[in-house]
Please model this.
Amino acid sequence: MNHQLTPYFTKLVEYTKKDRVPFDVPGHKMGFFENDMTKILGKEVFRFDVNAPDGLDNLNVPKGVIKESQALFADAFKAEHAFFLTGGTTLGILALIMSTAKAKEKIIMPRNVHKSIISALIMSGAMPIFVEPVIDEDLGIANHMPLEALKIQIANHPDAKAVLIINPTYFGVASNIKEIVDIVHQHNMLVLADEAHGSHMVFSDELPMTAMQAGADLSATSIHKTSGSLTQSSAILAQGSRFDYTRLVATIHMVQSTSPSSLLLASLDVARKAMYFHAKDKIENLIPNVREVVTKINKLKGLSASTKEDFLKQGATHFDETKLIIKVTGLGLTGFDMYHLLSEKYEIQVELAETKLVLCVLSVGTTQSHLDRLYDALVDLSNTYGHQDLKVETFKPKGSFPEAYVRPRSAYHAPTRSVKYEEAVGEIAAESVMIYPPGIPILIPGEIIDQALVDELVFYISQGSTILSESEDGYFKVVDKLTWPKWEEIDDEL
Ligand SMILES: Cc1ncc(COP(=O)(O)O)c(C=O)c1O
Model:
């Protein structure tokens, strides 16, 4: 295939160069209606923001340039089919799960899934069968899904429709995807992948294998996070004949906007071309430089950076070294302190903070001078704080997630009441609660609230973290058992 071509982007440029009279939406009319943004960014960004005019194809029934761009995209990302998404991988996850399992059908997945998966479970009514991920006590994060634990759940639930894997986790840790795919397919289940953080991996053998390379059926991947397209542009990749193609397409249309952004679509087209020609070199030049900075950070007092070996020792199969994890507690600081210091004092924006660490996401756009700026700031911080013998208050994860009692959908639709944290132990959650980012729910609807969870939330609130839930801090929305005494019967209806 000719990857020099960018069918959608080229047609869009052609279209906007003409002297068009826009009697279609959007209402800014190619920038004729000016606003503060047109003054700063210029009219051009609005001129390129068109709906689905003549010749530019239609994302919901692609027959022209979008179809051609998607075919090139599928080829570059080693899939048979690609579907562009303008609502992020969140939307892709909804489509994957809703097209695979209906109410009460089972999907096996690690418990450290992103909130979009919990939303999909609520919408579809599917029953999650959780596998406990490996908990990394040193860093306080959840890592890969252990194969043995997965095999047990597959044996216990042979009727499950699919296994969902995170490839890789937010922190770059990869499970044994190849073996997982083989085992799951032997049991006639589908393999779905959340590859929000792994779209770039297909371009270098130094990185973990992608779901499509491993033979998985469906993947949702955030091109915007690591492959250079505009924020919110993602894709579903698919291959083989195990999944229901027609149902997948219908479900994508159900959740996708009927007015997809032309800027996002064009950015997917050009990002694919740029990655196809440059990603391998960029990534393979970056990795030795990252390794060098990791080695140097590990010599600084009070700081340490994770290596691939650290995760392999825990049983992970691979680690995406474009994720730089820096543990900071040796400086007497929390990850949250470090996050703010780096931003305020050094103009360095990291991806997220956890209690003990900060995560830097590197990509094809990362330069040596970015790495140098980070290292210089860390040297400065190590000199400032490294000599003090400060103890930092951290939270020790309890090593498991709360116990599930009913399906997320049932608890979500149950009658609810609001209770204070201290009165909530033993109640069934009716909402998701997460620390944001990373947006991995520590409680989901249907799980039983335990003391460890309450302690964890109290700790995070004291650290100034953002808690995402439907309730104000200090309260949970729980199932009102008094007005919902026979949940089993009601569960049958949903
Ligand atoms: C693991 C994981 N899955 C899915 C998503 C959703 O992706 P998007 O932001 O593209 O909607 C995210 C977002 O951070 C994520 O971290």
In short: The pocket of pyridoxal-5'-phosphate is lined by residues 88-90, 93, 114, 116, 166, 170, 194, 196, 222, 234, 438-439 (CB under 6 Å). The first helix runs from residue 7 to 17. The chain has 18 helices and 20 strands. Residues 19 and 436 are 46 Å apart (CA to CA).
